[in-house]
Amino acid sequence: xxxxxxxxxxxxxxxxxxxxxxxxxxxxxxxxxxxxxxxxxxxxxxxxxxxxxxxxxxxxxxxxxxxxxxxxxxxxxxxxxxxxxxxxxxxxxxxxxxxxxxxxxxxxxxxxxxxxxxxxxxxxxxxxxxxxxxxxxxxxxxxxxxxxxxxxxxxxxxxxxxxxxxxxxxxxxxxxxxxxxxxxxxxxxxxxxxxxxxxxxxxxxxxxxxxxxxxxxxxxxxxxxxxxxxxxxxxxxxxxxxxxxxxxxxxxxxxxxxxxxxxxxxxxxxxxxxxxxxxxxxxxxxxxxxxxxxxxxxxxxxxxxxxxxxxxxxxxxxxxxxxxxxxxxxxxxxxxxxxxxxxxxxxxxxxxxxxxxxxxxxxxxxxxxxxxxxxxxxxxxxxxxxxxx
Length: 389
Fold this sequence. Notes:
By secondary structure, the chain is of the alpha/beta class. It folds into three domains: 2-114, Response regulator (Rossmann fold); 149-219, Helix Hairpins, CATH 1.10.287; 228-382, Histidine kinase-like ATPase, C-terminal domain (Heat Shock Protein 90). The chain has helices at 2-9, 21-30, 43-52, 69-79, 94-104, 116-183, 189-219, 232-242, 244-249, 268-284, 316-319, 351-361; strands at 13-17, 36-40, 55-61, 84-89, 108-111, 228-231, 253-257, 263-266, 291-299, 302-309, 365-370, 376-382. Helix 4 (69-79) packs parallel to helix 5, helix 8 packs parallel to helix 10 (268-284) and helix 10 packs antiparallel against helix 12. Mean pLDDT is 80; it is low at 1-9 and 332-336.
């Protein structure tokens, strides 16, 4: 007996609004096995019931004293937009039906005299519709909560990275300066080698701290852009020039396809960081003797930067998470080497996450296509310039 009561309590409520008690009883009998039926004798009474009960579907007679069925349904559409509405009418007046559908957002209408089978079918489908809508709302609420939680966690990680970089920055600065002073004094040959090793390690650590600081700004959404018109083609040429010595040492060839002039409206400092992240990856993951290519093109209103290489490529199962912080797609950060451009050198796994964050801050995107042994192709895309080419 308690189980039957519990099932009855969980059944959806259907509200029947009709000023004729006999009609109310007829609908109740027809829907006895379908739902729990509530009744009201007027539009005003129906609104009182709706304010106190969780109703899934309302069936309203069109012709009632005072508030008509279509007027009631229009009011419920305003107050309870998810409620499923059905109108009963003994008149085939087109204007009435159009008013019910437009003003009351009516799901279905039934003409009197109605058949019990048809009524049950309409109510059954209406309740299914209501249930689906409630499930959609529930899932959207869960998604919103999950998104808020994920965003909060990302911001917390960003704050943690920024705090860690700040805490490491001061002692690191002291260490670097101390090593420089120490190098100027006289030492044995063995001590000099140890000092040089410590300097290389401190430079690697300084780069890591700088990466953490940039990633923290991006992840913590504290990145502040200072947009200006600047020539992207000039920026890219200068960056390639900076790499010439390392490229020659590694016997890497680099090709550029750049327009003579390409004005963009962006933050040149952060765009430089994004491109540098891709260029350094291309150098580090392309074997000696390989090829790197840098392109810049305009596609409609977008500026596009493409950095491709003939390097080792990326496994398919790593591509999806490659732009996430601490990604192992480019190798395990715990297996890092301290060389800036040594082949196969690993970083902290923050570079590509920072690239993505910079592009998002510019309203743009970062994407990649790659396969093992076939190289990689990274594409940065961001919005329209505010200058003239």
